[in-house]
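>> Question from a student workshop board

For tomorrow's exercise we were told to take the sequence and the ligand below, predict the bound structure, and bring the output to class. My setup keeps failing. Could a helper post the expected result so I can at least see what it should look like? The ligand is magnesium ion.
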Amino acid sequence: MGKMNMVEAINLALKQEMEKDGDVIVLGEDVGVDGGVFRVTEGLLDAYGEERVIDTPLAESMIAGASVGMAIHGLKPVCEIQFSGFSYISFHQMEAHAARYRARTQGRFGIQMVLRCPYGGGVRALEHHSESREAYYAHTPGLKTVIPSGPRKARALLVSAIRDPDPVIFYEPKAAYRAFREEVPEDEETFPIGESEIVREGKDITFITYGAMLQRTLDAADTLQEEDGVEAEVIDLLTVSPMDDQKFTESVRKTGHVVIVHEAHRSFGPGAEMAARLVEKSFLYLEAPIRRVTGYDVVIPLYQREKDYIPDVKRILHGARETLEF
Amino acid sequence: MPREKIEIPGQIDHLSILDKDGNLDKDLEPALPDDLLLKLYRTMVLGREFDARQLSLQRQGRIGTFPPITGQEAAHLGPAAVLRDSDWLVPSFRETVAELWRGRTIESILLANNGYNEGAEMKPGMNMMPISVPVGSQVIHAVGIAWAMKYRGTDDLAMVFFGDGATSEGDFHEGINMAGVYDAPVIFVCQNNHWAISIPRSKQTRSKTIAQKAIAYGIAGIQVDGNDILATYAAAREAAERARSGGGPTLIECVTYRLRMHTTADDPKRYRTDEEVQGWEKQDPLLRYQKYLKAKGLLSDEEIVSISDAIKADIADAVKRAEERMKEIGDPGDAMSMFNHAYAEMHPYLKEQKDRLAAELKETAKEGDNG
Ligand SMILES: Cc1ncc(C[n+]2csc(CCOP(=O)(O)OP(=O)(O)O)c2C)c(N)n1
Ligand SMILES: [Mg+2]
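>> Workshop helper replied:
Here is what the output should look like for this input. Compare the format with yours to find the bug.
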């Protein structure tokens, strides 16, 4: 297929799944004629028509709630919330119903739907366009929360999400949408939801991260190698919830040092869950306190100060050296 | 009689005072003093020129994405102009001219549009909310503000703006319903500019008008030509009298058109035709109003030029001041300030985070000195 950016890769996943399965429906604000404000759904309306690619009225609760209804009747909706900052309007439907129907009906109705939304900083936009609040979803039993870090994984994970029998929140790091290209195979590719991946091997320190933070964490790992002779292992979480703790547990048992990097707020962020699992499962292997390099517990500032809020290579290195020197 | 017609109270008028060519309906002319008429004109020109200036600043990378208002000046200035200082204005994000009318400065708008949190600073005593980005969410705040006004025994009112797209959100319906049930002094102003990004009005609601939704909630409603400032003013004045005298809320639908892109990140060519836009350019609210003022002997061709030149000069000065302020704040700005308003009092763990960032920045600065 050649090299693709994340927008093109997600588009490919949607196209191929729609082609293959007539029950896959795309709905959301501006997803049809406009092809989505980030062009992720470009071309779908022309290919599959208005009954399968729905330009909805401006109402997020309806978008999620209608998706729940479609799923109950056997369709496989992939709905788009234009920005994660507006997904809280649909949160009620996701929490009150999508997440619960399987349990409520003793297994009769699983809600096979995907709620996609761009999240995170980096687009020089107005307020509500830059948050990273995946923890709201991760904290909700019954939902799965997936965050790809690059084009190839985004495509594979979205295919898996569409086929997953449970509701999946698919958070797309908009800073990574067009940041780089990757080889994406034409042939179908999936990646299991609930599995993390070791993307760089090392023996001295473990980084755990996901989404747009992966690239800068890899940069920090390279710098550690060059400047400090430290071999860092980097784990891309990929699914925030249910969290795969096996790979990072094994890694930290080997390295004894760990730094968690995320854009989300610090308190009650995904890093807090990772730290808890590490203490539960690897306490005696830790050679230094767990370090978190995260967003702060404040509303993310408008874009002039965004870069002071979002972890950068310097802050990641700082956290790593602190734990290594402990 | 098992089945009979229910008489539903309420009806919806369409109000137009200056027609599409700027011809006046004498009987409906609101008798406004000359100085007010001219002040409205100048503010409309300011809005139009400021929009053009912001577009060029955006293209030069000197500000970020912003929502242009060209073509909608009359739709939001007319209603806002009936407010007293003690009333409240609750904007969405496409009421720049109303905000300027209420005293928001060009500098603050530029700061906000260039990603500085300082842009939201409000002068104390200015009864206006900052822009609200989540579509429709602000509608309910106006109801709460109005409730407080009633509770305090004033005859003030709250005026809230929103778009045609916003009328699809639950918040719009919840707000208007609550206001109706308790006769809250609110004026709900919908700027129906025909588009919500790429979605046409016809895909927001099957209703013939947005104004008729008032009937469902048992409140007064009216549709006005939103490109006619006399009509938008007159309709709002009537609604204000109703609200102040305990007659409850009104829904005003201003039928207008967004002549430019949704925001500078949008490409309208993907979803609408040039012919449609050109059709609306002919109904320009500013040209219509100029014609009216000229016919009244309040404005000459020379004054049209001199007013516009003076306003452009004012805008240029304001841009200079804003950019000086940006420099003063520094780019990327004092990072520490993001912690300042998280809570009335900073909690200890946040203080820890702030101190840590300060130490890290200091270290980086030192490294910079050495290298
Ligand atoms: C709750 C919410 N959903 C989506 C968006 C993204 N968005 C911003 S403006 C807009 C369209 C708004 O249309 P309308 O209400 O007609 O106002 P207009 O932009 O035309 O002034 C959308 C979808 C948002 N800001 N808030
Ligand atoms: Mg609109």
